[in-house]
């Protein structure tokens, strides 16, 4: 297998075979993100991807149950190209149960519902999509390149196609100034399509990014541990989702808050309330640069 640059994958894909299908990210303008900055976005050729899949089969054997195709926004590939590599993967790995990619709302919406259905029927199981916020002002400030309306449209399209949606919420990305709006408007956005998974991440400023400079000069106010937990509490209080699994599967988070909505809402709120009884000095520093 051949890899170019740093390979990023969600924690939930730790046991997946990683086969690079795209290089970098086609947007690559988010002010909080340091990923792919030294990489010009491009698609790998289908033949190269298929060669790497075959190399993986020769090395690992056919007992691969999950494949994740990095880099950022692999969903941007033409449908026929994705179908070809999915079919090849299924032929090589008869025990394959899950195929996943990254895909933001902007690029998901470029696919027709019929194309997404074809991808699901071929074997595309899940798309990891980082909305970060459902608050339009926050989205604009961090240059996410999408809106809450587009996020909802993409979520509904994936649901109609039968593809699992793994959505990401970035606690604290609105700063102290918009913590309330970020939480409440994100809850409204997510509630409009009830993703299969809502994965919680807590914002940590990374050196070299525009928002890190805003943090350094004081124009962006980073949330303290208690403030971040209260924002998360506000989010969960206002979520009106049906069968959405909330997960805190990242080391940046201050507390493990997880459960199924709507049934486990009170349990999750109690988890947060317990965390808030601890002095802030007992949590990790809010400003560490890398996790």
Please characterize this protein's 3D structure.
The chain is an alpha/beta fold and 291 residues long. The protein has one domain (11-282): Alpha-Beta Barrel (TIM Barrel), CATH 3.20.20. It is 37% helix and 15% strand. The chain contains 10 helices and 10 strands. The strands form 2 sheets. An 8-stranded mixed beta sheet has the order 1-4-5-6-7-8-9-10. The chain has a two-stranded antiparallel sheet with strand order 2-3. α2 links the parallel β4 and β5. The model has no long low-confidence stretch (mean pLDDT 95).
**Which H/E pattern describes the elements?**
EEEHEHEHHEHHEHEHHEEH
Query: How many structural domains are formed by the residues?
Result: 1
What's the assembly state of these chains? single chain
Count of helical regions: 10
Tell me how many strands there are: 10
In which range does the helix fraction lie?
A: 25-40%
Radius of gyration: 19 Å
Major β-sheet strand ordering: 1-4-5-6-7-8-9-10
Mean of residue pLDDT? 95
N→C terminal distance: 27 Å
Profile the largest sheet. Answer: 8 strands, mixed
- The structure class reads alpha/beta
Shape: globular
Write the CATH fold name. TIM Barrel
């Amino acid at each position: 297998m051949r890899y170019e640059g740093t390979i990023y994958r969600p924690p939930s894909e730790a046991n997946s075979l990683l086969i690079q299908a795209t290089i970098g990210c086609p947007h690559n303008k988010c002010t909080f993100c340091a990923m792919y900055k030294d990489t010009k976005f491009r698609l790998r050729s289908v033949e190269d991807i298929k060669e790497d899949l075959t190399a993986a089969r020769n090395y690992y054997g056919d007992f691969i149950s999950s494949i994740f195709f990095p880099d950022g926004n692999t969903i941007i590939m033409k449908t026929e190209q994705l179908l070809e590599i999915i079919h090849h993967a299924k032929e090589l790995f008869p025990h394959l149960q899950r195929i996943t990619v990254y895909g933001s709302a902007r690029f998901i919406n470029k696919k027709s519902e019929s194309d997404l259905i074809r991808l699901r029927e071929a074997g595309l199981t899940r798309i990891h999509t980082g909305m970060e916020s459902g608050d339009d002002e926050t989205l604009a400030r961090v240059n996410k390149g999408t809106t809450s309306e587009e996020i909802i449209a993409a979520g509904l399209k994936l649901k109609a196609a039968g593809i699992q949606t793994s959505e990401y919420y970035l606690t604290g990305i609105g700063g102290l100034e918009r913590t309330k709006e970020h939480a409440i408007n994100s809850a409204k956005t997510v509630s409009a399509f009830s993703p299969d998974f809502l994965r919680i991440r807590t914002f940590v400023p990374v050196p070299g990014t525009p928002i890190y400079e805003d943090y350094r000069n004081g124009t962006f106010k980073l949330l303290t541990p208690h403030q971040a937990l209260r924002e998360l509490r506000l989010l969960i209080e206002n979520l009106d989702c049906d069968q959405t699994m909330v997960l805190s599967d990242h080391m940046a988070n201050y507390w493990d808050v997880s459960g199924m909505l709507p049934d486990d809402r009170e349990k999750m709120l109690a988890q947060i309330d317990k965390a808030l009884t601890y002095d802030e000095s007992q949590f990790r520093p809010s400003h560490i640069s890398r996790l």
